[in-house]
C-alpha cells in the first residue's frame, strides 16, 4: 500500500509553472501543490471553500458554515484547520466568533498549476 502524504503546514505562495509546460515541476513545487490538493480533496472542505467564495467578502463565520454543510462546529473547525494549514484560508477572531477568509492567491496558484493552456 502506498505511503500517505502527510498534510504539512505550508502557507507559502504556490509559484509553480503549469503542469505539462516547458519545464518539469520540481520536487518542492510538487510537494507544495500536493499539500494544497490534499487539503481540498474532501467534499466538506470544497463546500466550505465554495460557500466562502460565494460571499462578497470571501469570508464566513464558523457559525454560518456549520449549518451550511450540516456538520457539527467541531467537525467544521477541523476541516477549516486543514484548509488553514495548507494556506488556503486565514482566520480572525472577532469577539466570540472566528471568521475564515479565502486566500485568493492560493486558489489562483492551484488554478495556474492545473491550467494546461496557461503561459
How would you characterize the overall build of this protein?
It is a single chain. This protein has 119 residues and is of the alpha+beta class. It has a single domain (27-114), classed as Winged helix-like DNA-binding domain superfamily/Winged helix DNA-binding domain (Arc Repressor Mutant, subunit A), CATH 1.10.10. It has five helices and three strands, in the order ααβααββα. The chain has helices at 27-40, 43-54, 62-69, 73-85, 104-114, and strands spanning 59-61, 89-94, 97-102. Strands 1-3-2 form a three-stranded antiparallel sheet.
Shape: elongated
Can you give the helix content as a percent range? 40-55%
Q: Residue ranges: pLDDT <50 for 5 or more in a row?
A: none
What is the averaged pLDDT score? 85
CATH superfamily: Winged helix-like DNA-binding domain superfamily/Winged helix DNA-binding domain
* Order of helix and strand elements from N to C terminus: HHEHHEEH
Briefly note the CATH topology name.
Arc Repressor Mutant, subunit A
Number of helices: 5
From the coordinates shown, what is the CATH architecture?
A: Orthogonal Bundle
Q: Note the gap between the termini.
A: 37 Å
CATH C-level label: Mainly Alpha
Q: How many domains, in number, for the residues?
A: 1
> Which percent band covers the strand fraction?
5-15%
Rg, rounded, reads: 15 Å
Q: Give the neighbour order of strands across the main sheet.
A: 1-3-2
Structural class: alpha+beta
Major sheet details: 3 strands, antiparallel
* Number of E-state strands: 3
Amino acid at each position: 500500500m502506498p505511503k500517505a502524504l502527510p498534510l504539512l503546514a505550508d502557507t507559502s505562495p504556490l509559484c509553480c509553472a503549469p503542469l505539462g509546460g516547458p519545464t518539469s515541476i520540481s520536487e518542492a513545487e510538487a510537494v507544495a501543490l500536493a499539500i494544497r490538493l490534499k487539503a481540498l480533496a474532501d467534499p466538506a472542505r470544497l463546500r466550505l471553500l465554495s460557500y466562502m467564495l460565494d460571499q462578497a467578502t470571501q469570508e464566513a463565520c464558523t457559525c454560518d458554515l456549520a449549518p451550511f454543510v450540516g456538520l457539527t462546529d467541531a467537525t467544521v473547525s477541523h476541516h477549516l484547520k486543514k484548509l488553514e494549514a495548507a494556506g488556503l484560508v486565514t482566520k480572525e477572531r472577532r469577539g466570540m466568533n472566528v471568521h475564515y477568509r479565502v486566500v485568493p492567491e492560493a486558489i489562483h496558484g492551484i488554478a495556474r498549476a492545473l491550467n494546461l493552456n496557461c503561459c
